[in-house]
Amino acid sequence: MTRYRSFILIVVCVLAMGGCTTSVTVEGTIPTPLVAKIPVNVGIHYSDDFKQFRHEENIRQEGNWKVDMGAQNLLFFRNLMTAVFVDVTELNEPPLTGESLAGLDGVLVPEIVKYGFLTPNVSGLKFYSASIHYRMSLYNNQNEKLGEWTIVGYGKSERTLFGTTESLGEATVLAIRDGGARIAIEMTSQPVVQSWLEDVNEE
Amino acid sequence: MIKLVAAVSIGLILTGCASTRVEERREASTGMSDQEAIVLLGRASYSDRETETSFTDCVASALAKGERPLRLVTQKEFKDQLYPWFEPRTAPTSSKDLAKLFARPGVQQRIIETEVRYLAWISGDTITTDSGGSFSCTLSSFGGGCFGVSYWEEDASYEASIWDVENMTTSGQISADANGTSYLAGVILPIPIIARPGNAACKALANQLREFLQGSPITENEI
């Protein structure tokens, strides 16, 4: 049924000769990372931009694209952070005051810096590909920024005849997974995190 | 009945030929109990090629059928269970890497829980090696039709590298190569004669993989 809807969408797009919008809703499984938990109590702040991230782009001869990945990305990160740290507290609103930081060892703020995708028509390849640039900022429990690092997640998915939205959605899910995998695996090898953990253990 | 015979005949006529070659290299003895499972994993790299999901699905489907079906854990389920260790950029590239991965907390226990005995890494793809001819269709107020002939030759080349999870060794490799030429002829109506080398390679690889693991090839009816 979904493929049938996609087919109708493509036919309408061709008939309209442009001016058509392809909406992609990103959905997928939320795996729990199998990693050793870092023994700290960390606060995580997800901004509204992060929670509701949406990418819009106009590609010549392909029309407008809207990729809505905020909900999937947020669910993924909530699960990821819970698996990576022993204690996680979600912080709603900045600025972070002494009261909201009480009992925390530090605060992590993930952001999506950039999202991009390529269609087979643009790349000349057989698949849709997506990339997400995440920036992770780390603060201590005095609200002083200790540093930040960037992770890039990549994903690609085969082109199917009438499954444009599904293919790009799948590529985006794989990019979120790839970014999450690198965050989970490389967290403790980041110099800023190592330094922070040393400070926390000394306190 | 006549319609059925006609449909089968047309199907046979319109199916192009694909020639297949299979090679096997065994490095250790193999065997599977009824409780043990295999997982087929497609090698995905971030170059311009990767193993099509449809190919691994085809091999998995063939292995799960028959008188002695193999117990399969799906690629998706396995990757979710072992996340983040079998993602495209984090997956082990050799059975030696697998031993290192098993040293990480919880990984070996999780694999034991899935009852996976063998990992089969499938790599390769199907590419168009040659194409040519001329084919066109026209439509006007007086009618329409298709004229000409076009062709394209495809080469499907895949390899399965089988790892024994229990012994953390490479059990062997199986490769399957198939190629075939498809035609599209226009005699008013377009007549496609399609060779399916990818499907032929899938059958050949699944057949050999089953024989490799338990010594019973798949019959034609099972695919």
What features would you describe in this structure?
The complex is a heterodimer of chains A (203) and B (223). Chain A contains seven helices and eight strands; from the N terminus they run αββαββαβαβαββαα. Chain A is an alpha/beta fold. In chain A, strands 5-2-6-7-8 form a five-stranded mixed beta sheet. Chain A has a three-stranded mixed beta sheet with strand order 1-4-3, with helices on one face. In chain A, a hairpin with a 4-residue loop joins strand 7 and strand 8. The termini of chain A are far apart. In chain A, 33% of the residues are buried. The model of chain A has no long low-confidence stretch (mean pLDDT 88). Chain B has one domain. A six-stranded mixed beta sheet of chain B has the order 1-6-5-4-2-3. In chain B, strand 4 and strand 5 (143-164) form a beta hairpin. With 223 residues, chain B is of the alpha/beta class. Helix content of chain B is 29%, strand content 40%. Chain B has helices spanning 2-13, 53-63, 75-81, 95-102, 107-114, 197-214, and strands spanning 18-26, 37-42, 71-73, 116-140, 143-164, 169-193.
Topology:
The complex is a heterodimer of chains A (203) and B (223).
Chain A: H1 2-16, E1 21-25, E2 38-45, H2 48-51, E3 54-59, E4 63-68, H3 70-84, E5 85-91, H4 98-101, E6 106-118, H5 120-123, E7 127-140, E8 145-158, H6 164-186, H7 191-202
Parallel strand pairs in A: 1-4, 2-5, 2-6
Antiparallel strand pairs in A: 3-4, 6-7, 7-8
Helix pairs in contact in A: 3-6
Chain B: H1 2-13, E1 18-26, E2 37-42, H2 53-63, E3 71-73, H3 75-81, H4 95-102, H5 107-114, E4 116-140, E5 143-164, E6 169-193, H6 197-214
Parallel strand pairs in B: 2-3, 2-4
Antiparallel strand pairs in B: 1-6, 4-5, 5-6
Helix pairs in contact in B: 2-6
